[in-house]
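Example complex used in Figure S2.
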Amino acid sequence: MLKVFASFKYWMWLLFLGIVVLIYFQVDSDLKLPDQMQKIVIAIMEAIQSQKDPTQMILREGGTMLLISLTSIVCMFGATLLATFIATQVGKNLRLKVYKSVNNFSLAEINKFSTASLITRTTNDVQSVQFILVMLLRMGVMSPIMAIRGLSKINGISWQLSTPVFVGVSVLLTMVIIIFIFIMPVFKKIQTLVDETNLVARENLTGLRVIRAYDAVKPVEEKFDNVNKKLTKLNLNAGNIFAFVMPLVDFVMQIMIFLITYIGASLISGNVLGDNPIEGIAYQATFAQYAIRIFMSFMFLIMIFINFPKAAVSAKRIFQVVETKPSIIQPLVDEEILNEKRGTIEFINVDFKYPDAEESVLHNINVKISKGEIVAFIGSTGSGKSTVINLIPRFFDVSAGQLLIDGVDVRNLTAKTIHSIVGFVPQKASLFSGTIRSNLNLSNENASDEEIYEALSLAQATEFISSLPEGLDYHVSQGGKNFSGGQKQRLCIARALVGNPETLIFDDSFSALDYKTDRSLRNALMNRKKGTTLIIVAQRIATILEADKIVVLDKGDLIDIGTHQELLKRCQIYQEMAFSQLSKEELNATN
Amino acid sequence: MPPINKSSRTSIKANDFKGSFKKLVVFLKPLYKYLIVGLIFSVLSVVIIIIGPSKIGIITDVISKRIQTYSSEHFIGFDAEFKPLIDWSTFALTAGDWKQINDVAIFLVIMYVASYIFGVIRSFVSNQLSQATAYRFRKMLIEKINRTPIKYFDDNSYGDTLSRITNDVDNISGLLSQAVDTVVLNISILIGYVIMMLGISWELTLIAIASVPLAGLTMAIIMKRSQKYFAANQRVLGELNGHIEEIYSGLNIIKVFDAQERFETQFNKFNTDLANNGFKSNFFSIVIWPITNFINNLVYIGVCLLGGVLVFKGRRTLGELQSMIIYASNINRPIAQVAQISTNIQMLIASAERIFIFLGEKELEKENVQFELDPHQVQGNVKFEHVKFSYNEDREIIKDFSVEVKSGQKIAIVGPTGAGKTTLVNLLMRFYEINSGHIYVDGVDTHLMSRSNVQQLFGMVLQDTWLFKGTIEENLTFGRKTPISHEDVVRACKAAHVHHFIKSLSGGYKMIIDEENQISSGQKQLLTIARAMIVGSPMLILDEATSNVDTRTEQLIQDAMDELMKNRTSFVIAHRLSTIRNSDLILVMNNGDIIESGTHNELLDKNGFYAKLYNSQFEGKSLEEAI
Ligand SMILES: Nc1ncnc2c1ncn2[C@@H]1O[C@H](COP(=O)(O)OP(=O)(O)OP(=O)(O)O)[C@@H](O)[C@H]1O
Ligand SMILES: Nc1ncnc2c1ncn2[C@@H]1O[C@H](COP(=O)(O)OP(=O)(O)OP(=O)(O)O)[C@@H](O)[C@H]1O
Ligand SMILES: [Mg+2]
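Predicted assembly (1218 residues):
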């Protein structure tokens, strides 16, 4: 939680100072108010005793009283204004910090936290920190001021009377500390369970169709219910601890007042309080008044403390994210790219192991891709095609060996440069909510409509876009749910084409296209994108027939590189693949 | 960039404080036991709170009396200013006094202990109340999700719904007990004071409690004005949640297109909005406290004024006025406390409102169950009859679709992308309801069956794979109604050719996988195929089930699948024509209609759309050159 304060901007401290001043005056007026009320009562009595009409007096004293209470209100207004402002600004900054940190995360860090948890941390946790901050900034300032003022008044009247006050306050403080120790771990668990509710609920949402198709609504709801029950139980536990404590505050206060009166009685009886018993009673009464006030101020503090553990846990969770160093760190500046190497990509002895995995999935990969070449990767499921390709935009770093883009190690290029060089179409087609336009100009917000249409036409998507009434402004749902698989895939292809990158990567990105579309798309790419390096992962032999190089992968090993004809002659795995798709007759029929 | 989130589209009318409040009350009804117990203990606590001070007063009274008697006994003359001189040296309380004081003391201590116990019970009860409410809300929200048409989630972000389950329910679990507790307790106190005051003077009581409607009115006015900020606050929080859910799950793509800055601008908009609304709502509502405070002070002066006049005229005694004034200042406390938690109440209502809005969303069409098909007895005759369907009113996707499928046939559906193949599956599974026409299974209109019954009849593998966090085995047996032995699971995995892969994982079948994919796309597809085999439904739908699987593996699975689908009706959608070549019937779709049908060879002979589609893979650089 201290880190939250450490993150305050300097102007926040200035405002904080303002809060302190305002609250000082507020407390000051608040303390004057009871005296003023007493004055009115005395005024009435005096007036009545002397048979004068009290109206005048009351109005005069009443006016003063209203003035005092107005001062208090104005100060409080101001303090509240500042406190809320600071708290909401801090909340805003924290959210931004978390968001930015997550944006710098690589897949490894995201997997470590899980997406669901990162979401909770950005909203839920920040909310609870913000909530406590408002309280802390107002009451946390008010309490000590009030306590100090009160203490200075009772100081030196009588140590015997002070004892119950000190004992009461210490009892409360000990209690707060004990609660803190007990409840922190509970809240830690609670927030983890909030993550889990988020996770299970999110799964339910993303798997809606499958869940219904498998008639598995019940088990899923039971799974959620389990988490829900656990969360409820922990919340109940935490609440029950508070249930013991909150009334204790009242209890301690009542006992304290009682003790002051009782001890006061024996002091008066022993003639020790004041010069005489009459003074004693007066002392006792004033004492009780201020004791209540001191106590109240501690009560506010306790209210804060009771909400504190939750916020402290949240703050910790927030800073865990903020302080996590991304595993992939960008260089500040690019290493210089050699012009003659433009458009090339080179894998040199690349090994790769997923973080936390035991075995490496790529072994000693050596591939050299020159400018304008079409290079295809083929291999059985799980052979490592996507993994190889994902190294290029630096989703992960190689474990050993080197990957050169334009002749420079990717680790010496900034993300911006890599992404301006490489256009990427992922295996899983996914769009962002918005419009078609906002999805297509992702890499370049200022892309003109012509550029977009050019990309769409290359991706064979013009036809279905033009059938939409809104055209480019057609609404896209989250993930692109309102498009068919093939439409989504073509939009993803078009998205990569808009930036006009030197190198295009397609990770099995024609799988949802019918043969005809696939065919025309590749024709369009080859005819109109000459000079662009194309890297294609595909399963269909037909898709990669005309590749300059075909890389055959198997279980993470590079088996062979060659053209279709070469491989068909010498590579057994490749032959098997070819024959699994086209019968011998078909291959012969074209002869 | 146009606004990304469309949740506002569906939030019918935000900030209807009264309506949501009423709904919340109705919602709490089944929990009335808690409320009543809470109320009883509140009243008991209140009695103590009100009686306590007067009992303490007795101690002071005893001392005062002693002082009076003592001073009349020990009067030794007047001083220079004619003030009485008293010899205090032997002053002490008598044993009788102490007895009185001790009696009171014992009584008080007992009362305080009782009060503490009441307080604990009260807090317990209200804690139960709010946690039970939160639990029910979460449960209802999840159940609601499963009763909501898929269409709703086409239009609304997941993150927004998630925000309702976490952030909004969290507000309720945190604030409800406090709110109920404070309001109930303080209203009881207020009533207690009013009763005490009525015992003294009704005129003064009237003035004293004038602050109640006044404060109430001010509160109502301010709350009404500020409620929109609270509602906006929770709404924006939901939008923000939706935004980040999308960003966090699509981070790789955002990075690769270097679009972080753009999304950050969007994020900043939501974030700033949230901060502004948070500021306004909090501020407006905290303001309630000082204002009611001020009103109370006004009333206090009013009481003094009128009381003074009444005493002056001799209608009331001074003592009565004094207690009256004390009560008038005490009445301030309960009002102030209620005012202080008004923020919480408003936040609570705003959150409850969002929950109720979602709970009130249109549900799946009510079922009209007249038939029930036993999955074990189903023949598998499927018939589409003049089916029409559109996702949105403006674009009809399926125009007039009729087809009859015989039991045990393997049906392939092909066609260009966007032809409506997946849509057909959606309709068959009743994910969406058809606009007109009928779909029959074994002659029974599926519309007259329960949805879950229809869905039991089909096992399916969808275009996008979905696995949940859990062990591989849990994922594989998902949806399976009857227990299945591990050996059978392994058998299915061998058939789907994932056994080998699963074995190579560190935990094998016990390894926990999660949404963040530690497996390749093709492997995921193989797992979902195995899952469909394990669930064992009488009919099977495969929608691009092997699109990411290499063709060699696919061929191997194919044999296993053919075995599995023997005598079962199956629908296979695939672009890879090698996948569907040996189907009994191939339906060629275009623009939502069947344009051709027949077997592979028949269709090739016809030399129509299908033949063109098929041959297009050899066009361009011809195979001839290639070999
Ligand atoms: N949820 C939806 N909301 C609105 N329109 C949709 C939705 N889902 C699909 N569509 C539209 O319906 C049409 C048919 O889509 P469908 O998914 O059935 O195509 P498909 O034949 O399966 O194509 P593919 O081979 O690409 O998967 C498309 O034009 C698509 O844009
Ligand atoms: N994040 C990850 N953590 C650990 N292992 C992974 C991860 N992602 C993939 N793997 C494993 O690495 C291997 C290679 O996966 P990859 O996705 O590269 O295969 P692929 O060749 O693209 O397969 P497909 O054709 O199915 O897409 C697989 O065995 C997979 O299980
Ligand atoms: Mg892959």
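Chain A touches chain B through 193 residues (CB under 8 Å). The pocket of magnesium ion (ligand 3) is lined by residues A 385-386, 427, 508; B 520-521 (CB under 6 Å).
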